[in-house]
Each structure stands twice: as structure tokens, then as C-alpha cells.
Amino acid sequence: MKIVRNLSKAIIVTALLASSALTAFAENIIIGRANEPSAIDPQFSRTGNNQMTADNMFDTLLSTDANLQMRPSLATEWNNIDPLTWEISLREGVTFHNGTPFTADDVIFSLNRTDKVPNSPAPFTDVVSSVAKVEKIDDHKIRVTTKAPNPALMEQIGRVFIISKAAAENATLEDFNSGKAAIGTGAYQFVEWKPAESLKLKAYEGYWGEKPDYDMVEYRFIANDAARTAALLSGSVDLIDAVSPSDIVRLEGQKGFKVFPIDSGRLVYLALSMRDDTAPGVDDLSGKPLNPNPFRDARVRQAVSMMVDRKLMVDRILNGSGVPSAQVVPSVLGGYAEDLQPQPADGAGAKKLLADAGFPEGFGITLYSSNNRFPGDGDIAQAMGQMLARGGLKVNGVKTQPYNVYAAAATKGEFGAFIFSLGASTPNSEANLRSLLQSYNKDAGTGGFNRMRYANPEFDAALKSAMEEFDQAERMKKLQEATRIAMKDQAIVPLYFQKIYWASRDGIDFTPNLAERTIGQDVRKAK
């Protein structure tokens, strides 16, 4: 049984007060962002750019501290009655941006809706897949029954953004994008979204938590790294995210500006599609689609991993802005397996494995990547292409696309070999293992981010055992074992954990968490 009582709302990003005055900012702040959301509907896509936007306007049942430990938010207490039953108490006195009260009906509606949003490129399906039913006890208490024992239930449903049932019940995506249905309980409320340009928010006077310092927050979407840095230096924005590694030294040497490094839990990885008998962009040496799909052979996946020089990638391409990885979460999170460490590149070993798998001369491959999702993603793709070519593959090309286009295409299975990323948002590895590596099953709501369609019954069984283990220490051991199975099978090719950089004008100071998201209400004016 787990009971948590009446703790104050944890703020995702803890702001620190600087010593200098901040007269230039007045009551407004302008933030330059590399990526804009694909929609304002907070349940439309579980990608970082969307969640970063939703965090301002919509609350969740639980929030996280700097180390991703869960804390109460709209839920104040939760009690595991028996292995299948939970009772959750909801915060009283909370109102939506339109003044209507927040009740259990809104939570039930939000939980039931989150896996039914049409055309979602990255659905929240897996966070509610274990839920059998949600019942109302009274206006501020609900009962959740799970399909099987699930000790991580609150870590999962606690991340669902809560929306107003009255505003969203019959709303379209355009109703959210226009602001009509974008009614949350967060510190800021919607003002205006101009796609590819800006998003404006204003402080909600009836907010239940700590009052934000700024009356207005404007996000300006500036995809180009150099242009975003130039906007900060010129004074047209006050704070920027995703600082390019090549701009860090420049900004650190400028008087009146600050750079904030963040060790994030976001894994950048290479995915190898196992969906079909042939994989898009994978062909034989004569240019014909290769059947059978070589990525269905673990030896080929292992060979590809051995071609990658992770240290060179981090040191040379990213100027040190990363930590080489061999698994899905960093060492500070539960389920991390200490014995799984990145290995040096081994070209000879890679070629031997390819030969053992029946490809002594290699095969053709086209590598795909975003070009504006995270700092250096286009450069990483080019470097990866060179590494794969040296390892024995015929690299026919490296193709990059804007993230909003790229993410949807990757979800549809249009790429055979593609670079993607996944951030950590819970205290341990279970959520990432479930969403990224568990066998995909739309009806069961599993493997929501498993764009490769990796499937291994041994891994699924090990993960299921971990997911149903209520003893915390034993659960972590089982998560480690599941990780070892998947990494031995080279389900994905982990590359590195990002080191994220933000930069600001003097007068702003903050300490973001491992989820690397900074939101408007958590950026404080200096006093």
C-alpha cells in the first residue's frame, strides 16, 4: 500500500533568483524555441515539443522534481487498496481557465480520451493501457481498476494532461489550435498561436498554485540554431533553448548572458526497422529492395552498433554535449544496468558479424533523421552515415527533414534506418522500456513508440514481470534484467544522452530537470 498525503505541488523547473535587476523584461518574457508544437491539444502527441507547450496551460495528476521523482499536483493522495484497485483524491478549489470547477468528471474524461485522439503521431496510449475502468466516488475522488497488478500506475496516469470535459468533449483539433477548447488549470492560459511564428500565453489569475512572475509569455519559434542565438544576442528574445554546441563558447564569452548546461535523460538512438520483409531505403548491392529484411537478424543490428564511434560523435560533432550510452536511461534513474557500458567502435568485428549473417559485402542503406529536433541532429546523421560506410555498408544517402514532418513519417514506418530520441519522464526505466521496446499492439496499447516493431517474447515476459512487481528493490532488478535482454538483442542502437543548453540574458537563472523542459511559470524574474 502506498499513501501520499497533502504535499505541495512540485515545480518541474526550480527557478533561482539572480542578484541583478531585470528592468528590461518588465512583466513579459519572450522565449526563443527551436521547435513548435504540432498541435495545442495536450493529448495529441507525446513528443517533447508538444509537452513543453502543454506544461504551461494544462496540469497533470502528478508532477516531477529535478530528479524525476513524482509529486502531487492535481492528485493529492493515492491509495493502493489491493493489487488491482486504487483510490485517488483530487485537489479541491481548482478552477479551469474559463472559471468552471475542476472535478472528478474532468479526470475521468481525460483518462478515457487520451488513447483515442485521432491521427496522433506519438500517442499516450501506453500510459493508460493497464486501466480497466475509472469510476467516480465523489467530485474529488476516483477509483481506478487495472487489468493486472500495476505498481507503476500513478507514474503512468500521473502524466496525462487534464482537460476540461465541458470544453473538449466534442472539440476538434482546430478548436484546440484556435484556443476555443484549450482550457486547462495551468498557470498560463492560451492567447494566440500563429503556426511557424509564435505562441502567446497570459497568466491565469485564478491559478491554484504559486503565482507566476510574468503576466505574458511569448514563444517565438526559431528553428535555425544561428538565428536563435542571434535573436538572443540582439535582445529580440530573452531566453533560448537548444543552444547549438558550436555557439556555447561564443555565448559564454559574451558579457550580459548566461549559459545553462543540463544533463538530460533524453536518449538519442538509431532505430532499425523490423516491420516488414523489406525495409524502406534498404537494398542489395544492385539497388533492389532487400528481402529478407537484414534488420530482423540480431547479428546485423549488433554489427551496426559496433560501427558507431560514440565517443568521437560526442567529442567531435557535439563538442562534448552528450554522454555515450548503451541503454535506455542514464545512471541516475532506477533500472539502469551498471554492467551495460558503451563499447569502442569495432569495424573488424562488425564486418565479421555481417559476413556471418550472409552479407560479406554489406548492403545498401539510406539513413534518415530530423534536422531541427535537437542540437546537431543533422550533423549527427552525416557522421553516422560515414561510420556506417566505414563499417561495411553502402550508404546511398543521408536524408533529413523538419521534425514535425519527420516524426509523423517515422511513426507510419516510412524509414528503414532512422535517428530518433526519447526523453525520460519517470523515476525509472519502465516507461521507456514499455513505450519503446515492448511488442507493439494497438489494441492492447503497448509499444506506442516502438516504430521499429521490435518484438521479443523473452523481453516482453521479463518486462511484464517487472511491471507487476510491488517490491521496489526487486522491481528495479527485474527492470535491469529486461534491459539486458533487449540490449543483448540490440533492439535499438543507443548513441548518447543529450546534454542540453539553454541561454539567457542576465537576470534569469534556473535549474531544469532531467526531462529538459523549461516552462513559463518556472522562469522567475530576478529581485
Could you name the key traits of this structure?
alpha+beta; 4-stranded antiparallel beta sheet; 27% helix; 527 residues; globular
Note down, in words, how this protein is organized.
27% of the residues lie in helices and 23% in strands. A hairpin with a 3-residue loop joins strand 9 and strand 10. The N terminus is likely disordered. The longest helix is centred in the C-terminal third of the chain and has 17 residues. By secondary structure, the chain is α+β, with helices and mostly antiparallel strands. It is built from 16 helices and 20 strands. It starts with 13 loop residues before the first strand and ends in a 16-residue tail after the last strand. The strands form four sheets. Strands 2, 9, 10, 11, 12, 13, 14, 15, 16, 17, 18 and 19 form a twelve-stranded mixed beta sheet that branches. Strands 5-6-8-7 form a four-stranded antiparallel beta sheet, covered by helices on one side. A two-stranded antiparallel sheet has the order 1-20. Helix 14 runs antiparallel to helix 15 and helix 15 runs antiparallel to helix 16. Its main location: periplasm. InterPro entries: Peptide/Ni-bd, SBP_5, SBP_5_dom. It is found in: Periplasm. Keywords: Periplasm, Signal, Transport. It comes from Pseudochrobactrum kiredjianiae.
